[in-house]
Amino acid sequence: NAGVTQTPKFQVLKTGQSMTLQCAQDMNHEYMSWYRQDPGMGLRLIHYSVGAGITDQGEVPNGYNVSRSTTEDFPLRLLSAAPSQTSVYFCASSGTGSPDTQYFGPGTRLTVL
Amino acid sequence: GENVEQHPSTLSVQEGDSAVIKCTYSDSASNYFPWYKQELGKRPQLIIDIRSNVGEKKDQRIAVTLNKTAKHFSLHITETQPEDSAVYFCAARFGNEKLTFGTGTRLTIIP
Known about the structure:
By secondary structure, chain A is an all-beta fold. Chain A has strands spanning 4-7, 10-13, 19-25, 31-37, 43-51, 54-57, 64-66, 76-78, 87-94, 103-104, 108-112. Chain B contains no helices and 11 strands.
C-alpha cells in the first residue's frame, strides 16, 4: 500500500490564481481530512469527510473547497489564492468514520506571492 | 468547540533524562487523546494514544497519563535519546467529531 499520497510536494502561486491539491489513499479509509500547519499554530482542520459524498467544514474553511466523489480521493481547491494561505498542507485519513488513528500524507508546501 | 492547550512550547533535556509535555482540554466529554511526533520536514506520526476509560498507557520509553477530573493529559518520555528530538503534538476528540490539536512542543535532546 502507498498509504496517503499528496501532490504536488511544492507549489508557488501568485495571488488570485487557483489550484487543486490532490490527496489519495489506498487503505479504503472512510474518514479523510485536510489540515494546514503554520509555525506556532499546530495543525488546524480545514475540511473533512466521513465518507464519499459527505464533506463538512473544519476550523479554518474560508478560501477552500473540497469534494469527495470517491472513497480514495479528497482534493482541496483554492479558488483565489491569497498570501495568508501560504502554509504546509497535510491530508490525513483514518479507517473508521471518525478521526481515529489518523495517517498523514507527506504534505504540500504552498507559497502564495 | 474543543480547545487544547499545550505546554511548554519548547523543551530541552539532557540525553538520558526524562521529558514531560502537558496538555489541557476544555470539553469534559472528550474521549480520545492521541500524541503525534513530527520530525523536521516530515509528516506527523502517531506515537501513542489513550482513551477516556484508561488512566495510563505505556509503550516502551513513552507513556501517556490522563486526568479526566482536571481535564489534562501528559506525555512522558524516559531515557531520552537524540532521535527523540522532534515536535510533539497532542490532540483531543469529542465523540466521533474532529480532532483538535495543541500548538506543539519542540523537544531538543542535548547530547
